[in-house]
């Protein structure tokens, strides 16, 4: 016996399948669109375009570009270019974002139709009867909710695009700050080496003058102590320079052969003559801040989730299926079946309450984020401006005054008005001023990078003022 094949399906099921295919076709992958928007944001606001390396050829081209940059001392802009176009850690972040985007796209698509087949044989009195059943079903509830879920997915994609842009901004700021720390640490090391050489000469002079009876044991011991502390500070500065350099190497993702060729400028850039006002620094407004765009996308998605929950808490499923049955010696049966869960034990009130609470929490997070954004921007600008003023104060006031004092001390020594010990003590005082000036210049450029990121809504750590460089001079100040 050969069962009859089905020649048509119920009209309602056919219409449902057609609508499902049409709607699902709209949920296209947006991986490239998300990256292109983030790269455009980075190019517009950071002056550097990110690169997504998705093949051996692109990775080879990126490595060659890095090799060309390493032929000369690495600038801050080149450090950002390497971080956004070569670093394996950053490439991993891009791939993670692409995976999340693909998951969001998949979540907006309908579940596949379910095909069921059954074959039953009845044997009685030496005869066999064959019963074949076939059914094809789709979820009408998922079909009805598809437009809402597609909008949910779009909210998720907006969040992912803003999150990826924020990742680019933070990566660029981290690279710039790591470069500043590395250059400043090497600059401080070179100065400490010069101080160490001068301290060694002073200690040797004190030893000779002690031998001739011109220095007391106390005076000689002070010079030797200063030399010993200068050696310790040089060792510490060397370790800090190495640590800052390796931190930059890790952030840029340089392999050993490229890390060995990395050279840095001898000095940090000069301080700007003027800086932007607080009003100019906050002109971007809250609408363009990435952190607020992320939270707004979350709020939109949660609001749509709440709408879906109001429906699914009552009707948690609605499946329509077309069925065709063939039985030996009988006409073909055609029909449909509907499956609906009955809300007898779970009335959905808990899900509705949870959805409303999540929406309320998201709404308040948005309000708090706006308050925090204003506060952080004011704080970042205050740190930026105070570090600029402090660095200028050291450059224009403290260091020149210390230099003038040293010149006057030299004149007094030449006129036999003071002795060698007073001249050496003044040199020790000048060391602290120069070291603090270097720290202030470093802190300004760190604050500059932090402010740029904060204006775009991608906060980074603000620099903390440090005064570790003054220890040797303070230890030897009294006499």
UniProtKB/TrEMBL annotation:
This is Outer membrane efflux protein. Residues 1-29 form the signal peptide. Keywords: Signal. One of its GO terms (molecular function) is efflux transmembrane transporter activity. Gene3D superfamilies: Outer membrane efflux proteins (OEP). It comes from Azoarcus indigens. Transmembrane segments: none annotated. Coiled coil: none annotated. It comes from the Bacteria. InterPro entries: MdtP/NodT-like.
């Amino acid at each position: 016996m050969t069962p009859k094949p089905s020649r048509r399906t119920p009209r309602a099921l056919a219409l449902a399948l057609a609508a499902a295919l049409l709607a699902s076709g709209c949920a296209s992958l947006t991986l490239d669109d998300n990256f292109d928007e983030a790269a455009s944001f980075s190019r517009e606001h950071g002056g550097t375009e990110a690169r997504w390396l998705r093949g051996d050829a692109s990775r080879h081209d990126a490595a060659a570009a890095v090799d060309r940059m390493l032929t000369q001392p690495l600038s801050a802009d080149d450090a950002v270019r390497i971080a956004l176009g070569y670093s394996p850690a950053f490439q991993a972040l891009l791939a993670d974002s692409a995976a999340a985007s693909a998951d969001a796209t998949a979540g907006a698509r309908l579940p596949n139709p379910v095909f069921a087949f059954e074959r039953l044989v009845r044997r009685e009195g030496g005869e066999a009867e064959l019963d074949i059943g076939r059914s094809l079903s789709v979820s009408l509830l998922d079909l009805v909710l598809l437009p809402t879920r597609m909008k949910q997915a779009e909210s998720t994609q907006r969040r992912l695009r803003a999150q990826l842009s924020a990742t680019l901004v933070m990566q660029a700021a981290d690279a710039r700050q790591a470069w500043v720390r590395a250059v400043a640490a090497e600059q401080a090391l070179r100065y400490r080496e010069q101080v160490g050489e001068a301290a060694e000469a002073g200690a040797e002079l004190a030893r000779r003058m002690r031998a001739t009876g011109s220095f007391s044991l106390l005076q000689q011991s002070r010079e030797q102590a200063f030399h010993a502390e200068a050696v310790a500070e040089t060792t510490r500065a060397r370790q800090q320079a190495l640590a800052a350099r390796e931190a930059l190497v890790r952030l840029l993702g340089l392999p050993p052969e490229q890390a060995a060729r990395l050279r840095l400028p001898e000095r940090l850039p000069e301080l700007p003559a003027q800086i932007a006002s607080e009003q100019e620094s906050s002109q971007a407004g809250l609408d363009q801040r990435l952190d607020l765009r992320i939270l707004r996308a979350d709020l939109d998605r949660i609001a749509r989730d709440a709408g879906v929950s109001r429906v699914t808490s009552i009707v948690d499923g609605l499946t329509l299926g077309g069925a065709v049955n063939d039985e030996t010696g009988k006409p073909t049966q055609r029909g449909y079946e509907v499956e609906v869960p009955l809300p007898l034990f779970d009335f959905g009130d808990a899900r509705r309450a949870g959805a409303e609470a999540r929406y309320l929490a998201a709404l308040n997070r948005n309000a708090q984020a706006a308050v925090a954004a204003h506060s952080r921007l004011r704080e970042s600008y205050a740190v930026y401006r105070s570090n600029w003023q402090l660095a200028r104060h050291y450059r224009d006031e403290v260091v020149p005054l210390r230099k003038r004092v040293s010149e006057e001390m030299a004149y007094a020594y030449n006129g036999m008005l003071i002795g060698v010990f007073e001249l050496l003590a003044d040199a020790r005082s000048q060391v602290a001023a120069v070291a603090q000036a270097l720290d202030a210049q470093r802190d300004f450029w760190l604050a500059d990078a932090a402010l740029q990121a904060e204006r775009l809504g991608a906060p980074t750590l603000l620099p903390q003022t440090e005064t570790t460089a003054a220890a040797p001079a303070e230890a030897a100040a009294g006499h």
